[in-house]
User: Fold this.
Amino acid sequence: MSELAADIQFEAVSPRQLAWIRFKRHRLAMVSGGFLIFIYLTAALCEFITPYGTDTRNVQAINAPPMSVHFFDKAGEFQLRPFVYGYDMHINADTWMRDYIENPEKRYPIYFLARGERYEFWNLFYSDIHLFTTGKEGYLHLFGTDQLGRDLFSRVFYGARVSLSIGILGVTLTLFLGVLLGGLAGYIGGLVDRIVQRVIEVLQSLPTLPLWMALSAALPVSWSSLGVYFGITIILSLFGWPALARQVRGKFLALREEDFVMSARLLGAGRMRVIFKHMLPSFNSHMIATATLAVPGMILGETALSFLGIGLRPPVVSWGVLMQQAQNYQVIVLTPWLLLPGLFVVLTVMAFNLLGDGLRDAVDPYSTAGQD
Amino acid sequence: MNSYITRRLLGMVPTLILISMIVFVVIQLPPGDIVTSTLDRMQAQGVEVSAEQIQNLRAQYNLDQPMVLQYLSWIGNFVTGDMGYSYLFSRPVNELVWERLGYTLLITVSALLFTWAVAVPAGIYSAVRQYSVGDYVLTTVMLMGLATPSFLLALVAMYIGYEWFGISIGGLFSPEYRDVPWSLARVGDFLSHLWIPMVVVGLGGTASTMRILRANLLDELNKPYVVTARAKGVKPIKLLIKYPLRIAINPFISTIGLLLPALISGEAIVSIVLGLPTTGPALIEALINQDMYLAGSFLMLLSILTVVGMLLSDLLLAWADPRIRYE
Assistant:
């Protein structure tokens, strides 16, 4: 070992580290990734984060607008503990709707990590500790309430659990179908390839929503909520896999001629082993990026179907089911806050798109994104 | 060119056959069939039905025959223009679908034109002024359009229309024009209603279209011939339109085919929200009531619409780019 070689400092960076470096440059993708981690965490812990359960009704606040959180009391004094004002209800003589006006006499302080409504966490154990609550007295509706007096804030986060998990589950299924069929087509070639190609072509030229509608209308009414949930997920994946399969097929066609695949085959590796052990790893990062970009389609699909009343059905709470209440024209004009779940849909879908873009740029070894 | 068209037309046949099979299977999926739902209705009205009558009914709809024969008779009738009878509307399906399909086509095509009218200038601008404030603003707005479910956009349009302009949005005609024959005034009224579904349906596709054009154009703009032309003093606008844009627009044509299924899907749901007299609302009603001839015809016609649209976009591409014809 010469003196010279020891002096030179080599900076070794693995492909994964390179991708991470490129990804970090993509600021919007970083922010989106953070947002998604946050929203998935809140969805997972929604019993703890929300002040009420999905079916808790507050008859004192039916169709009540969102409450604003105050820090200054009537006298204009700053209070460290935030609080909300209770509602006084009037019947509006013109519209015969309930009007709610904040009553400064009814002051409900917000307590953090305090005892409130009892809930069962993940079907595991009972608790009554909430992230924030007004305790036993008063009520707290940050997003307002619906026509049954149920807290919209709580329902949005419970709905997130269903809508977001459908996105992930559906994409997993899509990924499986896409890799399997695209892989077989690209690897075996010949007749199999032609059939798969034709099916892909047909499925991609069909208008998805009408077919989704037909398939989910065919789900038996007698099915349990869980059955419908899985049914919808499968329906969404059935039309999602072609785009992915097409990409996988292209990659396989290119990789099939590579030397390392040839040597694996000559060493006697079986077909499945070559596909899953040798070929897949060389482009799985690419697949992850594509899958990320496929999640929004799933979430939007569930939302649209449930909104139309042929997807998930109450008492299941999902973002689409929540939007169903806002279907009618009068409802939107009189209680516009019922559109709030839609805002969450938009934010989540946007975050997935941006994250997917960032990932795609990051895992592409020839990409120059973020370097200029 | 002629041989290319022939090849493409022949290629459509297996596609359409496969689609018809998928549609047939889909409409056969719900438990029960036309006879059981007719029987339910008759029994609800207190009509006694004998076993023989049931048998007759089943024979009338070929339900006593194997699946393959049922499919063949359905598709055979469909091709000859007999689409069956709708129980929901108590009319032959033929009389129901064409007008609705026409409105669907109209809204979809105008949405497509709207998408281009917005996406092309926006794409050119953000490519020429890459990383400018305008580029970021356009990209963000388009991304929001992409992320917003079209039914939510329709709801927001309804809310804005009422709160800001005091007009009720929905339908394709004002009440006074709904059932009168076509006249100039009716066309005007129709156009004043058309633009909302057009914008709402079209906005979803603008983001992807704009991104594709932007990327294509950026690839071209960095090529040496553009630099040369610029150095020679060709006017920027003339240079842009004459060379790079013409090349960048080619792959862009092929995106029509990808855009169409999305537009037709969007049209269906937006029409349901806005209560437009198109295929969407009738399809969902037919599906919920298991009026399978009607639902099947709508599904089939919408799919044909998409396939034909894709064919047209392919032909357009072949016309614009000779390399494809001779592949």
Q: What stands out?
A: The CA atoms of residues 31 and 207 of chain A lie 33 Å apart. The first strand of chain A starts at residue 70 and ends at 72. Chain A touches chain B through 41 residues (CB under 8 Å).
